[in-house]
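User: Predict the structure for this protein chain, please.
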Amino acid sequence: MKKMYLLAVVLFTAISVQAQDVVKFAPLDASPVDISYFPNKAVKFKKTDTPNPVIKVTYARPSAKGRTIFGDVVKFGEIWRIGANENTEIKFYKAVTINGTKVPAGYYSLFAIPEKDKWTIIINKELDLWGGYAYDQSKDVVRVSVPVKPVNEVIEALSIAFTTQGNIANLVIGWDKTTAELPITVK
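Assistant: Here is the predicted structure, written as structure tokens:
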């Protein structure tokens, strides 16, 4: 009787194992996701830290791979999601002011319309989009025209960081041989 019981358990286990789906994980993305905070050390690193984030940007980081980015891969005069894959998202933990417009705390998407000498940077209410294909201008919160600044060394992967000037957090976007800065007033 014990042998029959043991045989039944073994057969049941074997059938159960074969019936399970094998999980196939996606390969590593060519444009990995990254996060940038303002202030730069706003997240908690150790138990004694008291984080105080004001802004968080979540974005995918495509690489230049020897290509000309602006004017070729990213077309001049066309909406761009600032990154790759899903739209770049920006979270304001408290209200900020951008170009004289008060932007309430919350999550937003971040777009740009690059030109050779300037970009229009856009904060938009719509989230969970793929690229700029479903971009809806009627959901823009603010649009700001900012100059581009050339850099000497190629920035291989799209990068976003913050610099500070008094109560201004400059959101700096850099890729290939170009940077653009969006001043955000934080109080």
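The chain has a mean pLDDT of 88.
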